[in-house]
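Supplementary Methods S3. Complex input for the coproporphyrinogen I-bound model.
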Amino acid sequence: MTPIQECIKNNNHKIKPIWIMRQAGRYLPEFREIRSKNPDFVKLCLNENLSSEITLQPIKRFDFDAAIIFSDILMLPYGLGQEVKFEKGLGPKLGELDLDLIANVNKDEFSKKLNPIYKSISNISSNSICKNKDIIGFVGAPWTILVYMINKMSPKKSLSKEIFNDKLFVKELLSVIEKFLKIHIENQIKAGATLIQIFDSWAGLLEDNISKFIYEPTLNLVNHVKKFDVPVICFPRGVKDYKIFCEIVKPDMVNIDYNIDPKKIINEIQIPVQGGLDPKILLTDKENLNTEAIKYLQIFKDHPYVFNLGHGILPETKIEMVQELVKTVRDFK
Ligand code: 1CP
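Predicted complex, serialized as C-alpha cells:
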C-alpha cells in the first residue's frame, strides 16, 4: 500500500510520509527554466509531456512520498469555456462568464479539453519513479472556484461582495461547478490518481452561509470520491472551526492551515491530519526549521499524520531548506 493510503486506511501513525503543497513549481530552478520557455501557463498545463516532467521534478530531487499532478484549480473554468490567463505579478485573470453557455457544456467536450491532464496522470502513474508513491489528483472546492469565476481575479486583489447578490445566478453556477468538479475528479481517478485533495483556499472569506457554500457542496464532492474507494483530503484554509468541518464533511484526512494550533486539533479531531507548518519557516534558518518541524512531529507522534505545510511553498524558498526539512522528517524517531 502507498504511504498516505497506509496512514489513512490502516490508521498507521508509525510512518510519517511527506510531500509539500505546490511542490511542483516556482521555487525549483528546473521548473523556472521550463516556465521561461512557456509563457502561456494554461498551455503548459495542457502539455502532457512537460506537465509530467514538472510533476516528477520534486520527486527526483527530494524523493517525496507523493506526486501531485502539475495543473491548476482554474483548469476547471477553462474546461467550461471561461477564458483563464495568468499574468506576471497579477495572478489569474478570468474572462466573461456566460452561465447559459457554461450550463450547456457537455461532459465529453469538457473531458476532451482537459484530456492532457488525464494523460499526464496516466504517464506518471506508470513511471517507475512513482512506484509506491501516491499520485494526488486535485480540484478546487466549489466555493473557491465560484469566487474566482465570479470575481475573475484573485480575491487577494479585491472582492466585491455584491457579486453574490444575485442568488439564483449563484445557485445555478454553483450547481454547474459541482457537476463538472465531479467529472474532473472521476477522470483523474480513472487515469490513475490514488488520492484526491480538495483545495478550499478561500474558505476563510466566508462569514455566513457556510453550510450552503462550503459544507454542503464539499460533502457532495467527498461522497463522490468515496464511491471510487479513493481517499480524499480536504484543505479548508481559514475555516473558523475545523472540528465542525470534519464532523459534517467527513474527509478521510484534513490538511490544517498554519493559523491552526496543532495541540488543539489533536484533541478535537480523530481523523488523520496533514500539514500545518507555516511556509514562512522555510525562509528562516535550519535550526528554526528543525525546531518547528519537530514540534509538529512530536504533537502528532501517536496520530496518523502526513507532513506537509499549512499553505503552498513560497517561490523564494531555498532548495537546501527543503532538503533539510525532508531529512528532519525522515530522521524523526
Ligand atoms: O509560474 C507561474 O507563474 C505559475 C505559478 C503557478 C503554479 C506553479 C500557478 C498559478 N499554479 C501552479 C500550479 C498549481 N496550482 C498546482 C500544482 C503544483 C503543485 O502543487 O505542486 C496546484 C495544486 C495548484 C493549486 C492552486 N492554484 C490553488 C490551491 C492551493 C493554494 O495555493 O491555495 C490556487 C488558489 C490556485 C490558483 C492560482 N494559480 C496560480 C496562482 C498564482 C494562483 C493563486 C492566485 C491567488 O493568489 O489568488
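The chain has a mean pLDDT of 96. The beta strands are 66-68, 84-87, 91-94, 134-140, 195-199, 232-235, 253-255, 273-274, 305-306.
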